[in-house]
Amino acid sequence: MWSTGSLRLGIVGVRRCVPKLIKANNYSPLLNVSFKKYYKVTVIGTIKAAGLEITKPPLTDARSVFSEKELEEARINRLKGLGILTKFPEKWIPYMELMRIEKPIGTLLLLSPCMWSITMAAYMTSAPLLSTLWMLSVFSVGAFVMRGAGCTVNDMWDRNLDNKVARTTERPITSGRVSMPQAWTFLGAQLAVGLVVLLQLPLDCFLLGASSLLLVMTYPFFKRVTYYPQVVLSACFNWGALLGFPAMGVWNWPVMIPLYLSGFFWCMTYDTIYAHQDKKFDVNVGIKSTALAWGNSTKKICYGMSVAQMGCYVTSGFLAGMGPFFYLGALAGGYRLFNMIKKVDLDNPANCWMWFKENINTGHVFWLGILLDYLWKLFF
């Protein structure tokens, strides 16, 4: 489906599209330099850093450690989880799985800090509702595309590890349904769309957003060298908490930094819970995580990080001059956090997944408080 010809066509399209967008948005020549750096850091830089051979397929020998029954169970679970993807042409499905479209939780978690910052900035400036809705829609598309690109990169890095974990043996690359050349082409297409989204933002916001891409592209590498890859993931996953402010014309670091740190500690907590799903397999295949580093101390540490998260979140809201709805949202969100840590069974993968998904609603609860303050200020 994704051939060399389609890759060339995509590159030609980007070359024609980007200069027009630059001219239309009155960007300075600096952006032309930044675009070159964007390409080198994301595409060329990732190829060099990963040491990936573009034609090298994943090794399948590792699958032999699983019985036919286990492999069939993984296949059945994948098919059950496709949901709405079954309505699309069969050739599209592996690429949609690469983006995890059937599992929107990652996109929604990535979007939450963006929603916090955009709406808080809108409150601070009394921005028109239509302007706020437009920026929320731009960031929604960006979160969808860049989360998909991140998942694609992750699967490319992990193609020889995913065959060693029962839950991931059916991923598109490791199962052979998408080749490495096809994955590279698809990644390039996603990054091109991500660039178009960034070009909708002011220049300083564009540069801030582009600066996170090296973390996005190299995160999977850290799972091999440190027990704290969640630090890297949390650092890039909450970049939207910074990005939303300049997108709305606000540069207020005393407000931005605490909000960013709040999202960072939140991500550290929920992704550690997520990592507990595969800890038994991760030990055997050499994948490192905070779940393994903290072991039986995980809950105590997560409680501490949640206290830090709440402290940073309230500090940000206080410095932004937020109203009573913000603090009610913070109280409700904090309750959900501590309740999750108390009740999650870290030795039960299904239970870890259930509580991990609950963080979507937790993020929305935090946002609701900011939103209600903004709407009250705007209309009353």
UniProtKB/TrEMBL annotation:
EC number: 2.5.1.39
Pathway connected to this protein: Cofactor biosynthesis; ubiquinone biosynthesis
First-tier enzyme category under EC: transferase
Cofactor needs: Mg(2+)
InterPro entries: HB_polyprenyltransferase-like (IPR006370), Prenyltransferase (IPR039653), UbiA_prenyltransferase (IPR000537), UbiA_prenylTrfase_CS (IPR030470), UbiA_sf (IPR044878)
GO MF: 4-hydroxybenzoate polyprenyltransferase activity
Pfam families: UbiA
Record field: transmembrane: 105-123, 129-149, 183-200, 206-222, 231-251, 313-338
Biological process per Gene Ontology, one example term: isoprenoid biosynthetic process
Membrane topology of the entry: Multi-pass membrane protein
Keywords: Isoprene biosynthesis, Membrane, Mitochondrion, Mitochondrion inner membrane, Transferase, Transmembrane, Transmembrane helix, Ubiquinone biosynthesis
Cellular localization per UniProt: Mitochondrion inner membrane
Reactions the enzyme catalyzes: an all-trans-polyprenyl diphosphate + 4-hydroxybenzoate = a 4-hydroxy-3-(all-trans-polyprenyl)benzoate + diphosphate
Gene Ontology cellular component terms for the protein in this record: mitochondrial inner membrane
NCBIfam families found in the cross-reference section: ubiA_proteo
Function: Catalyzes the prenylation of para-hydroxybenzoate (PHB) with an all-trans polyprenyl group. Mediates the second step in the final reaction sequence of coenzyme Q (CoQ) biosynthesis, which is the condensation of the polyisoprenoid side chain with PHB, generating the first membrane-bound Q intermediate.
PANTHER family for this protein: 4-HYDROXYBENZOATE POLYPRENYLTRANSFERASE, MITOCHONDRIAL, PRENYLTRANSFERASES
Family: Belongs to the UbiA prenyltransferase family.
Protein name: 4-hydroxybenzoate polyprenyltransferase, mitochondrial
Species of the source: Pichia kudriavzevii
Recorded name of the encoding gene: COQ2
